[in-house]
Amino acid sequence: MSFRENFGRFLLVTICVLSAISMLKDPKANEKLLKDGYSRSFAHAKDYNLTLPLTPQQLSLCSEEIIYLTSGLLLLGSFFIVFKVRIGSCILISLLSSFCVFIHNPSLYSKDKEIFSQAYQSLLNMGLIAGLLLTCQANTQEKLKVE
Fold first, then answer.
1. Which residues cross the membrane (predicted)?
2. Are the C-beta atoms of 96 and 129 separated by less than 8 Å?
3. How many domains does the chain have?
4. Can you tell me the distance from the alpha carbon of 92 to that of 147, in angstroms, rounded to the nearest whole number?
């Protein structure tokens, strides 16, 4: 494996590990963001006659546990990526895409500052998803060369 691929994998893992540590360090700040984003998503889904599995009240009861679970999944996915296990990329891609849809969706916000902030966060998550997809592709190409 080349230096470039190892360095890219290292950067992806570093971003995810630092994000997980910040979630564990200050879960209250992330709880507020989770509750606000989910309640906006719930209201938006209700406008289209869709139902989400949890109501915002149910989510607020277990939001701290969700933050801890999310940070644990970020750490687990990062651990798997270090050892080139493809399920790690799948875990992180599913987490980041759900963040983009439920929390960082700019269409759910009305103030310009909020829209740009959430669009920025969403684009960052999409960039991480693209990098994770490249790590999946690199693993597949390596296995094809061996066989």
1. 7-24, 66-83, 90-109, 115-135
2. yes
3. 1
4. 27
